[in-house]
Amino acid sequence: MAETDHAELEEKMLDILEEVCGDDEVRARRDEDLFALGLLDSMGAIELLVDIEDVFGVCIAPTEVERDEMNTVNLIIHQVEIRL
C-alpha cells in the first residue's frame, strides 16, 4: 500500500472512529484499548464494522477477529489494511 493510500486510510478510519466513539480522543490515544477507555462498546463495535464495510468494502465478521486484535485505533487500521 502506497504511503498516501495509508495516510488516506488512516484519516478515514480516524473520522469513522471519532464518529462511532463520539469523541476525538481516539486521535490522540491510538494504542490504547478503546473498550477499556469506555470509548467503544459491543454495539459501537458492530456499528464500526458496518461503517468499515460501507466505506472500504471490507467485511470483517465479529467472529473473525478476537477483541484484542481490534481494540486500539492502530490495530483496527491494520485489520482493514490487510483485507484491502
CATH hierarchy, class? Mainly Alpha
Could you give me the name of the CATH homologous superfamily?
A: ACP-like
Shape: globular
- Low-confidence spans: none
Instruction: Let me know the number of strands.
Output: 0
First-residue to last-residue Cα separation: 9 Å
Q: Can you summarize the main beta sheet?
A: none
Give the amount of beta strand, in percent. Answer: under 5%
The CATH architecture name reads Orthogonal Bundle
Overview of the structural elements:
- This is D-alanyl carrier protein.
- Its main location: cytoplasm.
- The modification O-(pantetheine 4'-phosphoryl)serine is found at residue 42.
- It is found in: Cytoplasm.
- With 84 residues, the chain is mainly α.
- Helices cover 51% and strands 0% of the residues.
- It has three helices and no strands.
- It has helices at 3-21, 42-56, 73-81.
- Helix 1 (3-21) packs antiparallel against helix 2 and helix 1 packs across helix 3.
- The chain is globular.
- The model has no long low-confidence stretch (mean pLDDT 94).
